[in-house]
Structure formats: C-alpha cells, structure tokens
Specification:
mainly alpha; Rna Polymerase Sigma Factor, Chain: A; about 65% helix; transcription; sigma factor; DNA binding; WH-like_DNA-bd_sf
C-alpha cells in the first residue's frame, strides 16, 4: 500500500467506512501479528490481541496525526495492548530488585548468524517477563527508564530482566546447537 493509498484509507476509516477498515486490516494484519507474537507466545491469544489493537485503531483513528508514520502509531497501540494483557493475566514482570545489573557480553550481532525464524523461536522460549523486556529494549529500542515507567517496575528490575533474558538466550543457543 503506497503512502497515498494509506492516507486515503485512513481518511475513509475516519468515516467508519467498513471497506476501508477491512483494507487497513488486511494490509497490516501480518505485521501486527508479528508484533503481538513477540510478546505473547500463544498464537490464538496473539490474534485476539491484534484484533483488540485494530479495534483501538478504529475507535481512536481521529487521534492519529498524518505527519507521524502510521506503522509506528499502530505498533505502539499493539505493544501497549500486549503489555496490558500481560498485566491482567498475572504474567507481570517480577518486582525483585537487583542492586547492580551489569550488561552481559552477548552482543546482538551474534543474532546476525541466525534467520528471522530462528531468532523468533529463541525469543518465544523466554518467560513472558523476560520476553517483554527483551522485546521492548532490544527490538523496539526503548530505554530502561521508559520500560520501567510502562511496566510500573524499577529501572533495576528492567536491567535485571534483560540480563537474565540474554543469559537464557545464550543457554538456548548452546543447548539447541544453533
């Protein structure tokens, strides 16, 4: 979908045009599902969260500003929807504090040796807490302060969970002979 087509579709979505909503849904379904699956391993739950995200998009479409990339706005809605689901389902981030959490030596260029599918398989094996922090920091690029505010945890907990996620990924790589 070109930028011009997207802007036209969004304009029609503002008018509650069902055909435009279907077009937007079909155009962004795969991308949206890939975002949700990074946070929630169960595919059925990921699809539900994606649909919830689309409902939020359609009901709040007037808040979207065309000078901001739609895909970024959409992704933010999906990430927040997934985080809210994790909170409600009691898969919250552990609140145990670490006085000092040092970053591990596992560099992300190590992932350059793997296919996207292999990386996704590894990340899905992390606990929901570790997977959430890992995705927010490494994949989405949020700083620990932002993550702490989003999840109502301390910065130390965010650092600790990222450290543990990286350690677990290293173990998975070694034990699965990747």
């Amino acid at each position: 979908m070109t930028t011009e087509q997207l802007l036209h579709t969004l304009k029609q979505c503002r008018k509650n045009d069902r055909n435009a909503q279907r077009e937007l849904y079909e155009s962004f379904y795969r991308y949206g599902l890939s975002v949700c699956v990074r946070y929630v391993a169960d595919i059925d739950t990921s699809r539900e969260l994606l649909n919830d995200g689309f409902m939020k998009v359609f009901s709040n479409i007037d808040q979207y500003k065309p000078d901001y990339p739609f895909v970024n706005w959409f992704k933010r809605i999906l990430v927040n929807t997934c985080i809210n689901h994790l909170r409600k389902s009691h898969q919250e981030i552990p609140t145990a504090e670490l006085v000092e959490a040092s970053e591990m030596g596992m560099e992300m260029d190590l992932f350059g040796k793997f296919s996207v599918e292999e990386i996704a398989i590894l990340i899905q094996q992390l606990s929901p807490a570790y997977r959430t922090i890992f995705n927010l920091h490494v994949i989405e690029g949020y700083e620990h302060k932002e993550i702490a505010e989003m999840l109502n945890i301390s910065i130390g907990t965010s650092l600790s969970n990222l450290h543990k996620a990286r350690k677990k990924l290293q173990e998975l790589i070694l034990t699965n002979n990747f």
